[in-house]
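Entry 14. Ran structure prediction on the chain below.
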Amino acid sequence: MTRRIQTGIVVAAIGALLGCRSEETPKTPSRLSSLDRVFVVQTEGLDLPGTGLDRVYRPQFRGELDAAEPDAGEVVGFYAYLVASDVDHVQMRLVHEGTGAIVVLERAAVADPGRLQPQIDAAALHPAVRQRLQAGVGVFWPAPLDGAEAGDGTRFGVLLPAGLLPQARLDIFVDTGSGSGAPLFPANLRLTPGYFYMAVIGDSMMWGNGLLEEDKFTTLVARIITEETGLHVVRQVRAISGARIVPQPDDGTCTSDCDGEVPKAFTSITVQAQELESPETLDLVLMDGCINDVGVFSTLLSTDVDSNALADLTRDVCGTEMTGLLQLVRERAPNAVIVLTGYFQFVSVETDISQLEALALSAEVPEEDLDALRLGIASVIQNSAVFDAVARESLLHAVETVGDAGRDDPPIVFADPGFGPQNAVFAPDAFLWGLVSRSELEDAMDVPVPVFPEDPLLEYRIEACAEPDARPELLPCLYASVGHNNPKGARRYADVITQVLRDVGVLPPASPE
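Output, structure tokens:
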């Protein structure tokens, strides 16, 4: 399959700008005066993922290095069409994006190592090339086009031991003769032995309110899958803050410039599941849901809610409604392992109550309700514990109900984060974002609240929450991180999910200590 790749006009312009900064430009060989560089304008034998926008390529051409020796390993290959000022000085190297380790590819010592086909016959390759591949070294060579073919640029063939592919970036560059060994303005192709398709649906816990992308537990899980399987994880994340299982009349769907931290439209988790792209290709669905159907400020933090009524409501949405949602996800993603994550006790006996009062004030709770909160904090703690216990029981029952109905399908499993009272909001070993004093923000925003969320995305939310198309109310939007996973909590979720994936065989068993 032929794939067109951006020809690098923007990169060339940036390079030209960099070249104009004469005071920072070291002296280089005269051959660099033209800013020698290389561009990949076309490829042959590389696949892109079936969904998403990731520019990570899987070689199509494959074969065994030695058909008589299964342990010899596999070889992969492809063609790249290059535009370069000096094709005779083109060099290539593989960089492991995890460790930074470098493997320099060798230019084949023979003019024609052999025609690459979808099924590579290693025995037909030139012996010198086969020897280098067996030694774990990739090779490349100018590969003239056949008479019936046409293409832009100069075609180069590339052969690699398949074991080099995981997390590999192929740098293609012109050797400047500078002796530094570091390529200047290389063209890049990110390579992978295969793809792992993962979807994320749910509410703000699954989105990761307040967390940098690299700290979210869905990102941590994807990283572990890549590190341990070698596959590139292709993610589609549809979880958003405020999402409920049950669709609401005022729900919508964001179609552009979407952000789960500050939604422009509240999309139910049911609709998120319905909108998954190519769900039949999914290998894993991470999901949660039901706490927004129960209600946090309206129910869990309310002193007027009877514990028995709360338990009944929780069984209804975390049990009955979640069962229906799991059935929908199973029908839409028949080949995926489904991991449903649980919740925790939001407020516990170890919660610092003064911080809880500040949170209620930031959510614009009326003063009379705040007085009721102070008087009824024991009820709030009890209701939080009731929700924690009943939600866990109900979600597990939903998983068992749907899982038993489809025993031949990939498993549906429950991942309980297992937070304790000491991990609740404003507790001594909190796994959840809390509040800190920010007097400069109090003055700048002219609000009578001396404490603000401690997460690193507050400044972003100050701008995003004020946008006219932001759906949440301003102050609750600003404080949307409080009570959600901080990096320690996200790490706990990731550890629990990782263990579940080991238990069902998605990941290999953990190595003994």
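Residues 36 and 85 are 6 Å apart (CA to CA). Will compare against last week's run tomorrow.
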